[in-house]
User: What shape does this take?
Amino acid sequence: MTVAREIRIEGVVQGVGFRPFVFRLASEFGIKGWVLNSSEGVTIWAEAEEEVIDGFYREILAHPPKLAIIVNHSIEPREIKGYDHFFIKHSERSDHKDVIISPDVSTCDDCFREITDPNDRRYHYPFTNCTNCGPRFTIIMDVPYDRDKTTMRDFPMCPDCAREFHDPMFRRFHAQPNCCPKCGPQTTLRDLEGNVYPGLGHEFLKEGKILAVKGLGGFHLVCDATNRESVAALRKRKIREFKPFAVMCKDLDVVKRYCHLSPQEAELLESPAHPIVILKRRHLDDLPPEIAPGIHTLGVMLPYTPLHYLLFAEGLEILVMTSANISDDPLIIDNDEALKKLKGIADYFLMHNRNIYNRCDDSVTAVVGGDVQFYRRARGYVPLPVDLPVDPPGVILGCGGDLKSTFCMTKGRGAYLSQHLGDINHYGNYQQFLYTIPRFEKMLDVKPEIVVYDLHPDYMATRWAKALQGLRKIGVQHHQAHMASCMAENQVTEPALGVVCDGTGYGLDGAIWGFEFFAGTPDSLERMAHLAYMPLPGEITIKHPSRMAFTYLYEIFGDAGLQYAQSYLTALSGEEQQVLVKQLENRFNTVLTSSCGRLFDAVSALLGICTRVQYEGQAAIELETQADIDDAVPYSFDLNTGSRPYTLGVCSTFQEILGDLRHNIPVSIIAGRFHSTIAEMIIKVLERMREDTGLSVVALSGGVFQNRLLYLLLNRRLEEQGFEVLSHRKVPTNDGGLSLGQVYIASEVIRKDVSCHSIKDIEN
Ligand code: ZN
Ligand code: ZN
Ligand code: FE
Assistant: This one.
């Protein structure tokens, strides 16, 4: 007997070829009815024998299109309507927008074949895409996902493209950004004077020129990575002396020539997101030293749009591809802006006339101990949600920190993190923060009822949140948010231990925290231990690690410390040292800090490795690069368990480091021993906390865990000691993951209706 069923599928089901897939499947099963992109997802009306529909439904769930992610699905009986064929219905608007917008997807094999086939009508066409690949998030202005709601609405399809678009059996059926050389976007290559050139600029790249290239989520600055003069010029013009440049390699073979590559790393490079993957270099002398000064790794990606593939040519196999922005301002996305702001940096401009709506940086990842870790989560991943372990009691907006900023908005259990927004103390980044929030509200069709902010009174996001009217506001401590972020992505609702090794964050006592141990559930985390406080002589110390080294020496050894400073801190003049002594004596313009990042800075400077910091974490990264961890014996340290919170003292640590320096022990050994010391400190504190609480699940979070040496060593040691380790795999361990933790804490505070001393809850 023929029956009718309505099937609903929610998740990432639009822009991924779901309807053509359903259409083909329906013909195979002999099902009548229709399929429709609705605001909730995909709705299917199926009429056939009951078993046939069941088989059809099972097949949809079992083998959906490669890029689809099914979050919810349902099947309901309906009155039969008597359709005589199966068809694709026009999109309708309804009240709910439950569709998850797909992130951008790198060029698929089929499209790649077309652009490299001289007989294909898309031969060498830089904007070729299909239902399995192409721009999504970066071009979508509204939902449901249809061409007229993307920046492709400026390009009406030619008859050939329209035919493909309407042919259900074809790969481009309802591929919204479908286009070809006749009807789609075009590139222009020009210089600042307005002279236009044919081609994509291969000759210029070979000559060593710097190109500004408009890509998917923004502009890149591009040059031949093997040309030392070009790379050095780019560094000089961009005024970016040390921060490593990312490169794009023509293919995996080229990557393997320059870097060690595990199968897992290769898989990540080739995954639909095509992120930057941090790889270990094979040799340090096969590329100009200006690519990545002071470190032994390289951020590598593969071409992810046809335009990128076409940039490579005979003699051009590895290109520098660095985000085109001025200092720390947002990535440039607009042609006119590029011409204006990149004047004096780029020699030529390879632009196109498809607008970028949502700015999106390249994501940065690494494979660490067999796990994928994010340093920056953006293109290829955003706006996919991370699931919360609980249903939040309303729509929550976590507004993140200030550096490596992201915000997080909830819809049901889905936590939607924004793309990386950068340092929002910069005007442009702050503007982006401001206009991206309403875009997410629109995309998710939600209105935040609760806003969560960091306790730092000077954070831009905090000031913004506090000034909001008519919604509940909750302040959350920075490092508690870090720990909760790790718990959230690991679906932990039970009490756990946590260690947060971080740069800086505002503490509940007004000090700058950063090496913190907590125990409990997100709504009630007790600070169990921390690194003993040191004065931080002014914000400027963050950029000048020698000042932090001096502080440790002087605070620990007093006048004897001055002797050590003279021997080892040559970057500080005698005069600067005198001023620092006065400042430390009078506690003038100093705050107390337990920052782990500053401890790394101090040791890095003391060993003469890094004395001036130009990008966040530089001193620690260079210290890690130098460290030889094999058989590294930890230094002593002092764990004071007199009262809670316990404190970790490093007097004996510094004493022993100075001893090693006096005995001319190589810096690599000292750096290795220091890493091993930090791991040992953490183990000792956690063992004590386990005794106190009976808990043995440990969440690791905070920016310092980007240090792979420390992370791997600690993981191994914790497992040996019988701890269960939770770490970040879905969001960054740095402040890019903070907003997720803010949301989780606020959700639990409200759900359990607790008011805890550690959380400031201001009702409006
Ligand atoms: Zn494709
Ligand atoms: Zn066309
Ligand atoms: Fe942090």
